[in-house]
Amino acid sequence: MAKRRPISAPPDMIRFVPQNGQDKDCVVATLGTLFGLTRDEALLACGRACPSVLEEGMSDVEIDAALLYIGAKFKRLPAGSFDLHDATGVLAVGKKEMQHAVLLWEGRIVEGNGEHWLDPDDYLQHYKYKPLHLIVRLD
User: Fold this and answer.
1) By C-alpha distance, which of 61, 63, 57, 72 is closest to 19?
2) Pairing between strand 98-105 and 108-110?
3) Alpha carbons 67 and 87: distance in angstroms, whole number
4) Using one digit for the tens of pLDDT, what is the confidence trace for 32-58?
């Protein structure tokens, strides 16, 4: 993949990459938004690491591989080691066997379907999610 400047640089500005509503593409959408990729670029990187990304989603190992492929500098922070009301990154949330990824942007939740939540606690309570970890940009 050719190196180019990202089209977004959180936390100052983001270009929202939506989920399509049909596939398990929450990681594609959130990584694209956080790292300034188009949907196609994010899908190519995620698909290279996990060819079945749209049917099955992605594991943490596959996400890391996709990020390494695009040359992203990142760190994964465990739940409890960051402030939900201030942090920016890809927030992994879950309940029981289900995991999901959303953008946490300076304490606000941006869902792949376009929902914006000012209070992350309200979002977590509404969907009965628990925060799992946060992927942050290091550049």
Assistant:
1) 57
2) antiparallel
3) 19
4) 999 999 999 999 999 999 999 999 999
Nearest of 104, 115, 27 to residue 72 by alpha carbon: 27
Strand 130-137 to strand 116-117: parallel, antiparallel, or no bridges (unpaired)? Answer: unpaired
The angle formed by the CA atoms of residues 43, 102 and 40, to the nearest 5 degrees, is: 15
Q: Max CA-CA distance within the chain?
A: 41
List, as one string, the DSSP characters of the chain: ------S-BTTTB-------SSSS-HHHHHHHHHHT--HHHHHHHHHHH-TTHHHH---HHHHHHHHHHTT--EEEEETTSS-TTT--EEEEEEETTEEEEEEEETTEEE-TTS-EES-HHHHHHHHT-EEEEEEEE--
Structure tokens at 79: 């739940």
Q: Which residues contact 7 (CB under 8 A, 6 or more apart)?
A: 15, 36, 37, 38
Prediction pTM value: 0.91
